[in-house]
Amino acid sequence: MTTSTRPLRVAIVGAGPAGIYAADALMKSGALVSIDLYERMPAPFGLLRYGVAPDHPRIKAIVSALHKLLDKPQVRLLGNIDVGADITLDELRSCYDAVVYATGANADRALPIPGVDLEGSYGAADFVSWYDGHPDVPRTWPLDAKKVAVLGVGNVALDVARILAKTAEELLPTEIPPNVHAGLSANQAVEVHVFGRRGPAHARFTPLELRELDHSPTIEVIVDPADLVYDEAALALRQCSKQVELICSTLEQWAAREPGERPHRLFLHFCENPVELLGDGEGRVRALRTERTRPGGAEVVAAGGDHTDWEVQAVYRAIGYLSEPVPGVPFDECAGVIPNEAGRVLAEPDSDAPEQRYLPGVYVTGWIKRGPVGLIGHTKGDASETISSLLADVDRLARPASPQPEAVIELLESKGIAFTTWSGWQQLDAYERELGAAEGRERVKVVERDVMVAVSRSSAAAGDCRASIEP
User: Fold this and answer.
1) How far apart (Å, rounded) are the C-alpha atoms in residues 78 and 37?
2) C-alpha closest to that of 9 among 465, 398, 463, 346
3) What is the DSSP string of 181-221?
4) Tens digit of each residue's pLDDT (9 = 90 or more) over 407-430
5) What is 315-367 written as a DSSP string?
6) Backbone conformation region of residue 253, classed left if phi is above 0, alpha if psi is from -120 to 50, else beta
7) Cβ–Cβ under 8 Å, residues 15 and 46
8) In 3D, which of 28, 74, 23, 30 has the Cα closest to residue 46?
9) How is the chain split into domains, by residue range?
10) Which residues neighbour 317 within 8 Å (Cβ) at sequence distance 6 or greater?
11) CA angle at residue 337 from 331 to 343, to 5 degrees?
């Protein structure tokens, strides 16, 4: 074993759940390890901080668990670093025995229909980044549409629909920053229409996400009984999946009731396939055209050219996230993943020789490995598989030229990179909580990257980054 006289040095790129679970798997393996978690944001936790709606309190429990893992002495957080730009893969390989990419999926999947480029057509990922206070997106968002369409029936689609339908005051107790509260206060939406191409048994959201729609005192959820159609495949799904049965039964209960008096209406439509966005002659969205579908198992089957034009002034596309290429690493543009086998990054897929088939010492986990599907449990399983592959390869890993923990710090400092650390996050965390306390809230999220970095790198947060990580 090449690391018998020192800890195994591993760089993990991405400090969201996938990266942190990979670090946890390494620590639980029993191997002597020293781990650096690289994060492009000044703060950790990835999509839990910048991809989950702020009114999901249960997410706090997951963050708390991840917080404990990052507090381990074998792990060091290095934030505000864009791997590929600030530091290259070759530079990482000179300091680490292995590099694990856990960069996730942050972009919107394309929807190739006419009119998708009209003003008022938005990607859900961009809107989520705005209301979650991502530092690299505009501070304002146009919310002047009174009728809005959301395309997709996954959890992100329901998050977007719920945020658009709720009032700003309902969301004020959460951690939303002032610019988001101000923007939502001006929101004109009174109708939100959510569209799914297939029937309710094929919806991708969870029962919990669905039921949360009906918890708001300002949202009236409306379901058309005609949309609740099932073929043999859908009925089989209901029989074999408790989750599908809960979704379908909840929708049926809502379809059977009379609409109430809540001021904002949220319509859930099924068997409606979006085929075109219609413009008003001045380049703005005026309507969404859908084509009626019929049950067809796993396929979307047209029901004979029956089209409907829905009057809307904005359309949000929530049809899936997409991973972006990583500099210096192979990427499958069609699948949107880094090609791999059990987490080993493929260099020459057709080669029978391991030293040629795989990119030496480079691994992948999470959504960038398997695509943006699955929940936390899948992420843990991904991490376990990838780390098992890494540990099985230890004897074949090349020895890095500069494995000392302080070497990479010297490299970053020589480049003038204002990186943040775990102690810096603790300082920023305390600062955000102080902002919240002043308003009677748990936290107010800081949006500006320069402020995040300044608070994180203040003297109160300074730590000795040069110190070796305790095994």
Assistant:
1) 6
2) 398
3) HHHHHT----EEEEE-SS-GGG--S-HHHHHHGGG-TTEEE
4) 999 999 999 999 999 999 999 999
5) EEE-S-EE----TTS--BTTTTB--EETTEEESSTT-SSHHHHEEEEEEE-TH
6) alpha
7) yes
8) 23
9) 8-106+323-461, 108-321
10) 108, 109, 111, 116, 121, 122, 123, 124, 151, 152
11) 100
| Amino acid 353: pLDDT | 67
CA distance 439 to 152: 36
User: What pLDDT is recorded for position 464?
Assistant: 42
pLDDT > 90 fraction of the chain, expressed in percent and rounded = 86
What residues pair up with 87 in beta bridges, in sequence order?
Answer: 83
Fold held by 8-106+323-461:
Rossmann fold (3.40.50)
Average model confidence (pLDDT) across the chain: 92
Task: Enumerate the β-bridge partners of residue 12.
Answer: 37, 100
Q: Sorting pLDDT into bands at 50, 70 and 90, what band is 194? A: very high
- Cα-to-chain-centroid distance, residue 353: 36
User: What's the Cα-to-Cα distance from 157 to each of 91, 154, 255, 306, 457, rounded to whole Å?
Assistant: 39, 5, 20, 24, 37
Contact 309, 291 (CB under 8 A): no
pTM for this structure? 0.92
Percentage of the chain lying above the pLDDT 70 cut = 93
**With bands split at pLDDT 50, 70 and 90, how would you rate the model's confidence at 471?**
very low
At 294 the pLDDT is 87
**For residue 34, what is the DSSP state?**
E
Q: Which two tokens stand for residue 326?
A: 């990583």
Which residue has 């893992």 as its token pair?
69
What does the alpha-carbon distance between residue 195 and residue 212 come to, in Å, rounded to a whole number? Answer: 18
Tell me which architecture the domain covering 108-321 has in CATH: 3-Layer(bba) Sandwich (3.50)
For residue 253, count other CB atoms closer than 10 A to its CB.
11
> What digits encode the pLDDT tens for the residues 420-468?
999 999 999 999 999 999 999 999 999 999 999 999 999 644 444 434 3
CB 449 within 8 A of CB 53: no
Read off the pLDDT of residues 49-75 as tens digits, 9 standing for 90 and up: 999 999 987 777 788 889 999 999 999
Provide CB contacts within 8 A for 437, sequence distance 6+.
none
